[in-house]
Design brief:
single chain, alpha/beta, Vcp-like ATPase, Chain A, domain 2, Rossmann fold, 3 domains, seven-stranded mixed beta sheet, 10 helices, 22% strand
């Protein structure tokens, strides 16, 4: 991936992202522009002072403030990129790729595109010889995710397709046994267990990333009931950073705790039954049946915020292309698209748009 390597080497250029760190460890991610100006309570400077400088430069402002300038790592980018849906944290994306054994050349189906955080990790793992197919129900989320992924990879984007619609319907259109991995980031992953089994090759991995114990329990029990997969396994990942100061080495007071559960199993060969683990569950584990809540909550995102994120993604694409801070063709296109959507909704609903913009 030559282009990707070249984009991440050499002096800073107008249009690219830079991560600034002040002496207290506070970080700021900016897009460099020829006429840009960074302003904060910690110091101010013109972007031109960084353009042409080598990565790892410490910039001193006119008032004596200092900033370390580096290109963001993919983990930094994921946490700072525009988002519609909540992103999957780097700690979880790394575990998903490792646990599922997503390898170079793999054929991966991703149900639930979100803001593109997990897609970045999957594309990095599958490489130029693999393929990732992402299904997303909401066009606005897909638009934001595509902008985020293309912004990171540029012209060196690995093979990737995005389909808008229900994951089960997309799977029905795939050839049987054509997939190596099934990665599910959706509210009700148990609903496509049968469709996933048809599309997965024997030995292929099905993995769900869920937020609650109710979702985890139902997904695992539905996998067992299908008799199409091996015994499921589940885990969560906690990351605790440490304070390092001479001999004062101790855990930091804050940590990234629970963000989600990972549950996975592997596709059985047709005609084979899974091995049933010999276990003695607690008395109440199964005695009362299952009382799962049918309605799984999803955090609502206001249409106004979603439109703002879409505009931010388009403006970033303009900056990367031109190196200028002024909005360009991408911004004009998304503005016209949003205005058309609002006008269509107003016409359907027969009411004013208020402060929709």
């Amino acid at each position: 991936m030559g282009d990707m390597g070249n984009r991440r080497r050499g002096p800073f250029r107008a249009g690219e992202r830079v991560q600034l760190t002040d002496p207290k460890g506070r970080q700021y991610t900016i897009s460099l522009t020829k006429d840009g100006y960074f302003q904060s309570t910690r110091g101010n400077f013109r972007h031109s002072a960084l353009i042409g400088k080598e990565e790892g430069t410490v910039l001193t402002t006119d008032d004596g403030r200092q900033f370390l300038a580096l290109r963001p790592l993919i983990s930094d980018y994921v946490l700072s990129m525009p988002r519609g849906a909540t992103v999957i944290y780097p700690k979880d994306a790394a575990q998903i790729v490792h646990v599922a054994d997503v390898f170079p050349g793999a054929r991966v189906f991703e149900a639930g595109l979100g803001s593109g955080a997990l897609t970045l990790a999957l594309l990095k793992a599958t490489g130029s010889e693999g393929h990732v197919l992402s299904a997303e129900l909401r066009p606005e989320f897909a638009e934001i995710a595509e902008g985020n992924v293309r912004s990171w990879y540029g012209e060196d984007l690995p093979p990737w397709d995005v389909t808008i619609g229900e994951a089960s319907q997309v799977l029905d259109g795939l050839r049987a046994g054509s997939l190596d991995h099934m990665i599910l980031d959706m509210l009700k992953p148990w609903e496509i267990i049968a469709a996933a089994a048809r599309a997965l090759r024997p030995g292929g991995v099905i993995l769900a990333y869920v937020a609650t114990t109710t979702q985890l329990s139902r997904f695992v029990e539905e996998l067992r009931a299908s008799s199409l997969y091996t015994e499921p396994q589940a885990s969560e990942t906690l990351v605790r950073t440490w304070h390092l100061e001479g001999l004062a080495v101790r855990p930091d007071h804050r940590m990234v705790g629970h963000t989600g559960f990972i549950a996975f199993a592997r596709r059985m060969a047709p005609g084979s039954e899974p091995l049933h683990a010999v276990r003695r569950p607690a008395k109440e584990a199964y005695s009362g049946g299952f009382a799962w809540e049918e309605e799984v909550g999803e955090r609502a995102i206001s249409p106004k915020k979603l439109r703002r994120v879409r505009r931010d993604v388009a403006h970033r694409a303009d900056v990367e292309e031109s190196g200028e801070s002024l909005p360009g063709a991408r911004s004009a296109q998304i503005r016209a698209k949003i205005e058309s959507e609002i006008a269509g909704r107003v016409q359907r609903d027969g009411q004013g748009g208020g402060d929709e913009r």
